[in-house]
Design a protein that fits this description.
single chain, 149 residues, alpha/beta, 5-stranded parallel beta sheet, 44% helix, globular
Amino acid sequence: MTTNTRIVLSSDHAAIELRRIIAAHITTLGWEAVDIGPTTAESTPYPERGAEAARMVASGDCRFGIILCGTGQGIMMAANKVTGIRCGVCAEPFSARMIRQHNNANMLSIGARVVGESLALDIVEAFLGAEFEGGRHATRVAMIEALEG
């Protein structure tokens, strides 16, 4: 198991407040939050924000990434274009736990206009508290990785 406790967080303009709340929360859980913004409410393109965070995870600089936009969908799509990234959008804790246990996800996406603060923190805790189960799931993750070319 890696000792890297760094988690990169990024969002578009729609999710700044929730991103900051999540960053503070993961710090209380013993993780190091690497918040790469944005810091102002002016329109921010989510593809750039998702890709920048994904590159930090793919490089190994950060162990995980948590990204947010209005729905979580667009920023997740951008992140998944980066080789080595497995990111899923979650609106409840069960899926967040499963994408870690079964898909070895290294990024989590949340829709700030979809879930409230308390639920978002539950989703983050489920994601961070789960471990990849390996076994038959490792074969399937390898199949996903093979699609990257």
